[in-house]
Each structure stands twice: as C-alpha cells, then as structure tokens.
Amino acid sequence: MQEPLIQQACDWLDGQQQAMVDCLAALVNIDSNSYDKAGTDAVADQITQWLEQDGITVIRHQRPDSGDILEAQLGRTDQGHVLLMGHRDTVFPTGTVASRGYTQQDNVGFGPGVADMKSGLVMNCFVLRALSRLPNCPLPVRALFTADEEIGSPDGRAFIEATAQGARAVLNVEPGRVSGNVVTGRKGGAGFLINVTGKAAHSGVSHADGASAIEAIARKIIKLHALTNYEAGITTNVGTITGGVSRNTVAPFASAQLDIRFVTTVQREQLYKAIEAIIAESDIPGTQATIEQTSEFYPLEERMSSELFALYQSQAKNVGFDVDGEFTGGCSDAGWTASLGIPTLCGLGPVGAKMHTDEEYCLLTTLVPRTQALTATLLSLKD
C-alpha cells in the first residue's frame, strides 16, 4: 500500500498517457539545436505555459547568447530540496523538423530529440504537475530546464551548481537505457583543441630548413593514445586532424581535436597532468604546441547514488516494473551535481535508444510508469 500522497500523485498520472504523448509531439516538433537560441527558447515558452497553467512558479533567467534557463519551484523555498534536471537542446540542425518531425508507430515515438531528451522534459513537467495537485507539496522541489548540455553546458553549468547547493538529491531525466535500466554511473569527459606551429620549407629544395608541425602533432597523438587504459575505463581519442598547405611543403601548422573519458575525478587530474606534459614536450625542434580545453563533464561516480538508487528501485517495484542500475561511457549534467557530493541519479527518463541518429525512438509505454516511479521517489525523500 502506497503512502496516500504518493498514491494520489500516481493515480492522477495514470490518466495522463495521451496528454504526455501530445506534449512530447509538441516539443519534438520544435527545432532546438544547442546553438539555436530562438528554438531552445521556443521550447521554454511551451514548458512555461504548461507549468504556469497549473500555478507552478517559473523563473526565467534571460541569457544573451544561449537559450534562457528555466527554473521551476514548488513547495518551500528553503534548502534540503530535490532538484529535477533536463536539457532542452538537441544535436540536430535547425530545419530537421521540417523534413523529419514527430511520428508514431503503435507505442513508439520517433523524431529529433524524442528520447534525448524531449520525453524527459515532458516527464519533469508531469512530475511537477502531479505534485501541484497535492494538498501541499511536502518538500521543496526545484526543476532546471537548461539549453546547452549537448555542447558541454558552458552556460548551464553555473546555474546547475548554484541551484544544487543544499539539495538532498538530484534526479536527472536523461533517457532510460534500452535495457530499461537507469544510470547509476557515468564517465566524465573533456574535449581539447591542440595547435602546433612549425616552419614552412620546400619539401624538395630545402627540407632541412623546415620544421613539420604535422610530424610533431603525429608524435604527440601516439603518446596521447598511449594513455588509453581500457581496464581502468580511461580512453583518449584524437578524432580530427588538419594541417599543412600543400603536399610539397613542410607543414607550418597543424591542429587536432582530442576527446578523453575517465571514471573518477582522481583519474581526471592524472590525465590532465599527463596531457599537459605531452603537449609541453619538444618533439621536433622549431615546433611549438598549445592546448585549449573546449568542453568538459565531471563523472557520476557510482558510489554517489547507491542509497538513492535503492530507494528508486523500491518505488519502481511498487509501480510495477523492475529496474537495475547501469554504468555508461556517455557524459551528462549529472556529473556536475555528483561532484558536489550530492546523491545523484541519471537516465531516469522514458526508455529510448539510437540517440543522436535519424532512428532515435522513445517507448511511449514507459512515459507514465517511469514518471510515477520518479514522483514516488521524490515524495519518499520528504522529512
């Protein structure tokens, strides 16, 4: 027998399947690439309308160069709150919706961002709406709807960390795994741009007078890739290289983009030091290398979520489904809050797969039960 408040919220959600699907279609049919401020703000407009119709307080933090940050509030305004998180941006270019908008086949929804993470946004809206219908919200609840997670949250990170201060738990509705599991651990990661300068020379007439930036960066790439340690969960990958001016010119410049992944913050610190040392080495006389960090996510270490996951697992069973925790190599905003020492769960959204591709889908039958499990978990965290 569920506690009365949990039962009341779950009973209301029982009748919201079609409403949730309709809301999902509305959000998917808005282009919202990370760099499309108008698009991500249009998603914010829609979410604000839904929440304010139910009397939920929405604070809109205007941002000049990126999508505005939405912060919804319910219950008391003191700390000890629960923070819900979700991002409005997708990886798909503006114009995608015109050629490939929301479609549905039986109980599967398709479209750009349908799983990652328009369905999670709908889920958070309905969690808030369910809570707003209770006689009173028994604990402080905050929800952040950010707009730049897909590019590393350069603007959203500060809002996430500030809003998370004093939180008792953070629940992030990235898509549930195709297995049906939630995410209890994630790798952290970072991106870097490496630039090398050398000295141009004719490769036939005066080869010895040159200093090849391409050779220098090639030697560094070998050293960088040697930092990969599969057993420890560390990977390094140079995914792009460019440089030089012509086949018969010793290359005066070259650049590469480096991606790294790690499991713990200790590994992060060790990797950063190793990378800095490799870049500082003089591989070819006459060349010089610099490195610039372009993005970063902190890891969600599994030890941070064990008790919170056990609570979610119990509430999911009460709703009617079994779930396990899962580790993934992908990064998310959950790492920012976990790094602050706050119990954090991720991958709590509806189940989906093939994210970032034209075949991305969401299992619509998971909308209501996973929203109920999340709502019940949140309510069970009250004092």
TrEMBL record:
The keyword Metal-binding appears for this protein: yes
Sections of the chain in a coiled coil: none
Alphabetical list of Pfam families matching this protein: M20_dimer, Peptidase_M20
Cofactor(s) listed in the protein's UniProt record: Zn(2+)
Domain of life of the native organism: Bacteria
Active site feature: 89, 149
Domain Peptidase M20 dimerisation: 184-282
Keyword terms of this UniProt record: Cobalt, Hydrolase, Metal-binding, Zinc
Molecular functions per Gene Ontology: hydrolase activity; metal ion binding
UniProt-listed InterPro entries: ArgE/DapE_CS (IPR001261), Bact_exopeptidase_dim_dom (IPR036264), Pept_M20_glutamate_carboxypep (IPR017150), Peptidase_M20 (IPR002933), Peptidase_M20_dimer (IPR011650), Peptidase_M20A (IPR050072)
Residue ranges crossing the lipid bilayer per the database entry: none
Protein name (Swiss-Prot/TrEMBL): M20 family metallopeptidase
Protein species of origin: Vreelandella sedimenti
